[in-house]
Amino acid sequence: FLSGLLLDKQTGQLVEKEAARANELVQLLIKLGPTFIKIGQAASIRADLLAPAYLKALVELQDSVPPFPTQMADEIIEAELGSPVGELFKEISNEPIASASLGQVYRARLVDGPEVAVKVQRPGMEIVVGLDLYLLRLGAPLIKQVLSLVAPVNQDLIGLVDAWGEGFVGELDYTQEAANGKSFSSAIKQTPLGAAVNAPAVVSECTAKKVLTTEWVLGSRLEESPASDITKLCSVAMNSYLTMLLEFGVLHADPHPGNLLVTPEGRLCILDWGLVTYLDKELQIRMIEHVSNLVSREYKDLGSELIDLGFVPEGKEEEFRGSEVQVVLADAYDMYTDGGGAAKFDVGAYLDKLQVLGTKYGSIFRVPPYFFYIARAFIVLEGIGLSNDPDYSILRECLPYVSQRLLSDKSPRVAKALATFLYGRDRELEDRTISLAQFERLSNGFSSYSAAAGGLSQSTSRVGELVDQLAELLLVEAEEGSEKPTQLQLIVIDELAKVLGAGARRAFLNSGLLPAGASPGGEDASWSAVSPNTSDLKTLDTAERLSEMLQPQAQALIKDFQELDSTEQRQVALEISGKLWEYRTRVAMTGGRVALKTMAQGLLRLSKSFGPSAAPRG
Fold first, then answer.
1. What tens digit of pLDDT does each residue of 193-226 get?
2. What is this structure's pTM?
3. 498-502: long-range contacts at Cβ-Cβ below 8 A with a sequence spacing of 24 or more?
4. Active-site residue numbers?
């Protein structure tokens, strides 16, 4: 195949023979087996990397791999489930309706009525997969030596093969796949995304190590949806996968288009839970801190974050901190955030920079083995997004989830990340001021997350859910002994108190009640306690600009309400008034905390103005 490509290039026939070579590549990957089919599946949606002819040919690998005989499938079903096929299923298709790298799927009906999908594993997969992994592991040192001729390589290639193998071997146990799907369905129901995404229900009595039976899902492939729906569904998918990775710690690592269906109700249904990867709690927190900084284009802590995440080989930490690699990586992140994938990214020039740095410092950057499947999953999701929008940016698409997580997570480290997001490096200062640009990003991101949580169905029935969500975010608990306020609630209380105090001092200054000759900046500094200073004016200016920023959103909500019919308007009004009554105690409790904070800030200011440093000169 490679020699044919070289010949085509030499003879100027690359474009002319593109379709034929693409089909040749597909047949080659099929002959090489499941490992290479997986690689082809991942590449099949990368419109920014491959020519259309190759994309069209590789799509076949998603669910149209040549099947094995149905008679063999029947024998496997009967051996695994212990009963004849005719007793297990009222009817079953004569031929598979889809065939993939490790198994094929039949459409069937249970004896008691419901339609189901029956996945049967290809015979002898343990031997085939084992041999593939053995050869890859055997060849890893040789590949490393060849790559070292170009630039120093400190990558643990054997570790990468082992990480690949662990997930791949896990795919061969369909009982574990069933457990993965059940676990996801149960966990996602507890999140705001519960109504937008799910996994097929498992029929446990017809499931074994090599046979998996699930409910039959009516739906179409995600990429076949209208363009406007694909945009929304890609957002649902991204938020779902980030939730899996950074909350559940178990990531579905095989999201090619054949595994992402859209149901008639507008829900995203994720199929094929055999290939998953795991992330422990500590890495989840480190990853959310890192992603939070990336989406806000804050790269000052990039070096420390990458070291903590294992991207720097042991013993190379100090060398990495002092190198230009951080600058090169930050530039790459910046360009990647702009969108467009590799098509708008000068990969060649970037690799040249890394090669020069590699020659200068040796290999001081690597991809840790645990990250392999994470990267694969999000590369595939990015490809789906780019197929619909050539300017799609996967880093930008992380913002909705990051916003929701920063606003709702109560852990101290995520709370610190929220303060950094809103205040930057000034987060520890007493007179810190919220960054309006960052507030707007956070607000827009959270709005996008809320929209994604509704899937394709946005209705007035979600008004109550949104009010509940806002109450949980902003209002402190009223019950005695309940949890302490979250970081967001503390920020809201602190900022409201500062605005109230600054507003009161400005009103006093404008009232004309100051004694003749007294001024905030005069000889008698005691009057500064009741007069606005520079920090107060900045606080009030920020509050006014925030108010102006939120006005269009408020006007849009009013317009949406006015466009409802009278019955829907009454329904919404009743639901909102009912929710306000339900949360009246928490509103009062939050108001009380704001009042106490305002008093505390005023007393602190008063004590400073009468302290030794504030005494009148002379």
1. 998 999 999 999 999 999 999 999 999 988 888 8
2. 0.75
3. 498/539, 498/601, 499/539, 499/540, 499/543, 500/594, 500/598, 501/536, 501/598, 501/601, 501/602, 501/605, 502/532, 502/535, 502/536, 502/537, 502/539, 502/540
4. 254
